[in-house]
Amino acid sequence: MAKGADVVIIGGGIIGVACAYALTRSHVKRVVLIERGGLGREASRASAGMLVPQGEAEAPGPFFDLCLAARDRYRTLADELRDATGEDIEYSRWGLLYLVDPAEHEAAKGRAAWQRAAGLRVEELSGRDVRALEPILSPEIGGALFFPDEAHVRPCTVVSALAAAARAGGAEILEKVEAIDFILDEDRLRGVNAGGKTILADTIVSCAGAWSGRLLDRIGHRLPMEPVRGQIVRTRFERPPLTHLVWGPLGYFVPRLNGEVLIGTTVEQAGFASTPTLAGVAGLCEAARAMAPTLMTAPFDRVWAGLRPRLADGLPAIGRFANIPNLYVATGHYRSGILLGPLTGELIADLILGKKPPFPLDAFSPDRFAG
Length: 371
What we know:
Helix content is 30%, strand content 28%. With 371 residues, it is an alpha/beta fold.
């Protein structure tokens, strides 16, 4: 017998569980999320949890505005999820030291200028200033931009807290259930075939990450999606050796409250292979050596990898296809999934409920790749 739902969400990474949470928070009763594996086991796992739109952005524009709004949302989300679930996502506004390669000095000054003009906080630091903040960093570092409002969270806890809050709101979350195909009826979808069953739905949201392209191909909507493998190495100290996020030309450090330090990340076109490699570990260790040579005496703790979904233009797809009005897409967030996840969920919920989003989403329309 076919099962019914108001909304079916395909994909249980940060984007999918954020959609489920936002919909249940808006009192949508019958929300079903299906995930082919375990929650947050792909791109969400490959994230270090940085909320750093100022560090990531090369220029102002709609994507930068979206990322700033997403960073701001976390300021209230941490307490909201703690109250709802008891889980601490470890939201920490430690600021980002963006190390400047001498060859990029003028570009860094330009970045600082346009961000200040936008009303954002940014400081230009000398090498001496950098080491006063973080003595462990290499004496070879000549300077940095400091973004004091950048932050980080623990990604897997964000995923589990959003899922728990969605379940508490009535969502049904099914793991190890794969969406095989859509059920299409003229210009609308009637549901999905998943796990040997048919789930009928008024609305469907595709949040399947790197697998979104394969699924949407089946109804003639091709998204130019590629999986990008990211590897992260973890080391551990009795207490954090750093008090800021650090981003260098070859990699980054993310310190955690429990003394862990994450070293990331690789950017690899390796198809759907998500296994860590010796080459990846070696490259990350070299990045760590360049930024903080004394860190190389730290014990090796763990390495992991995941597949991040990247669209051809580097921007996410958030919205619906014009010719299938009850199919929404939220995918292609690439390196910004943890940052953008909670806000994306709220934007999708607004669209489904017929509310006007707080800012234009034209730049992220999935129809931009049509033809």
